[in-house]
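Page 37, continued from 36.
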């Protein structure tokens, strides 16, 4: 069974309709978490791809992404520097920097990423876009392992919400760019 096939379903109301987001989390040894979120959208693979690969613009619409800078592009390999920040409980603020290598596989609708350097021991995953009848499935998978001293329970809690918000933000940005006048 595919990891994404076991995703529980959450209902979200957006733009006057019910938005289905499916999410799962696996707790692996040594503080490793594997998360996946998926949504179905009316937006096309091509339009979603354009939004996801607007690397310099991601921080304008992805919640808690403070900056995203394109460092290098060589064919389908892209290097990015990103800074994320999140407000945690009791007014605590968490900030993390990563340098990512992304591999674009446009024909497959696959955008894989892995951390080259950063504030985690492990940070890797993929965006997958798949056309299905009358819709597109958007799947985001992330495997993350915090450094020693990182409060993994708090990070896990924030990631659960943030990943949902990120998918909705990508969908909303796609709607804004391609369907609104």
């Amino acid at each position: 069974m595919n990891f994404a096939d076991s995703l529980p379903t959450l209902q979200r109301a957006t733009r006057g309709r019910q938005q289905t987001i499916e999410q799962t989390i696996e707790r692996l040894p040594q503080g490793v978490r594997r998360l996946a979120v998926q949504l179905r959208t009316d937006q096309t693979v091509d339009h979603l791809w354009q939004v996801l690969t607007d690397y310099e613009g991601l921080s304008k619409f992805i919640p808690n992404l403070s900056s995203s800078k394109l460092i290098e592009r060589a064919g389908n390999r892209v290097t990015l520097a990103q800074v994320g920040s999140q407000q945690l409980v009791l007014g605590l603020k968490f900030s993390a920097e990563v340098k990512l290598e992304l591999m674009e596989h446009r024909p497959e609708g696959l955008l894989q990423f892995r951390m080259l350097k950063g504030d985690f021991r492990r940070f890797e995953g993929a965006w997958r876009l798949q056309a299905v009848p009358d819709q597109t499935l958007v799947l985001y998978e992330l495997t993350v392992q915090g450094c020693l001293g990182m409060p993994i329970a708090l990070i896990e809690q924030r990631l659960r919400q943030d990943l949902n918000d990120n998918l909705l933000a990508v969908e909303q940005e796609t709607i804004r760019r391609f369907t609104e006048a």
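The helical segments are 45-52, 58-61, 152-178. Flag for discussion at group meeting. The chain is about 20% helix and 55% strand.
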